[in-house]
Write a structure and sequence with these properties.
Blueprint lengths: L3 H6 L7 E5 L2 E11 L3 E2 L13 H9 L7 E5 L7 E5 L1 H12 L7 E7 L5 H13 L3 H18 L1 H8 L3 H14 L11 H9 L8 H12 L12 H4 L3 H8 L5 H5 L6 H20 L3 H6 L4 H22 L2
Parallel strand pairs: 3-5, 4-6
Antiparallel strand pairs: 1-2, 2-6, 4-5
Helix pairs in contact: 2-3, 5-6, 5-7, 6-7, 7-8
């Protein structure tokens, strides 16, 4: 086989530039190589499918890749390069070439002057992806989970620059997101999991999680923000039991909430304010017409007695 990489790259090795990525400083050069000489990284942090019709359309519209892949000399395959960042771009370019679009066979790459260590490679990838909008949208938890698989909890937390406890929370969110399997947009599963994890952990027993996942997958809950209603439903035994039943949902469970002491006191105050406003709203002429009316005077006396008793109850130690 012709060694495309060696033939293409040898004249450019002298054009090294420094590129600082977090703690890692890379010396790289840019060139174009045959797509066959680029090999995906089996320990790539991103999980899930990499085929993307929209990305393929962008490649065709730009007549090739706009952003070069970041690659390193392959440690086991002489003349080949392993991807550090750009696995999706490589995958979708590969698909186009496999369909006979030979104009996309030679792809732009930025090549490091050495093979990176596993930790360097992961740090570089994470640093690059943290600059992109996808990081907070859907990648943070996924990468945490993948790093734990690759390196263990302590090393994963160190690379991400977070505590092990924070790492565990990210992993837990990702594992929960994997249960939401019937969403129209699979990437939205992280959002659903984040909202559910916003509920007190004491209340998120397995039966609750299973009920939520089932009702979401059945499309009986269609807005992730509605899961916030669980914060009021789950502490209430009646509302909670109804939600966990087969026929229960968030709205019907809310109707079964018992009023709290605060709700009761707020309601009483609201009623008193309404009554006072009604009295103040009566025209003075109306009171003049009621002068000497024994029934009205009796009602006023009853009201006075009630108010005296209420005042005494509220001010007594």
């Amino acid at each position: 086989m012709t060694n495309h990489a060696t033939a293409d790259l040898r004249p450019n090795v002298i054009g090294l530039q420094e590129r600082r990525l977090d703690r890692t400083v890379l010396r790289t050069y840019r060139t174009k190589v045959n797509i066959d000489d680029v090999v995906p990284n089996p320990n790539q942090p991103r999980l899930g499918p990499k085929e993307d019709d929209e990305l393929q359309r962008q490649i065709e519209a730009n007549q090739g890749l706009f952003e070069p892949l970041l690659v390193e000399p392959h440690p086991e395959l002489p003349g080949k390069f392993r991807i550090i960042d750009g696995d999706r771009r490589w995958t979708n370019s590969r698909l186009l070439v496999d369909r006979g679009r030979e104009q996309y066979r030679h792809i732009p790459v930025e090549v490091t002057d050495r093979t990176l260590s596993e930790e360097e490679r992961l740090r570089v990838w994470i640093y690059i992806h943290r600059q992109r909008k996808e990081w907070d949208a859907k990648e943070k938890e996924m990468v945490a989970y993948r790093l734990v698989e690759l390196m263990g909890r302590a090393s994963a937390a160190n690379i991400l620059g977070i505590t092990v406890r924070e790492l565990d929370k990210l992993v837990e969110v990702f594992e929960l997101s994997e249960k939401f399997t019937k969403l129209r947009d699979p990437s939205a599963a992280i959002t659903w999991a984040r909202e559910l994890m916003g509920v007190s952990k004491k209340l998120l027993v397995p039966s609750v999680v299973d009920a939520v996942v089932t009702k979401v997958n059945q499309k009986r809950i269609t807005n992730s923000k509605d899961l916030r209603k669980l914060r009021a439903i789950l502490p209430d035994p009646v509302a909670r039991a109804h939600f966990l039943s087969d026929e229960g949902d968030l709205d019907s469970a809310q109707l079964r909430l018992m009023p709290t002491e605060k709700d009761a006191s707020d309601g009483a105050l609201s009623k008193m304010e309404t009554a006072l406003a009604a009295l103040k709203g009566l025209p003075w002429a109306t009171f003049q017409e009621m002068r000497g009316d024994s029934k009205v005077l009796t009602k006023i006396e009853e009201a006075e007695e009630l108010l005296k008793s209420l005042r005494k109850a509220l001010t007594s130690p």
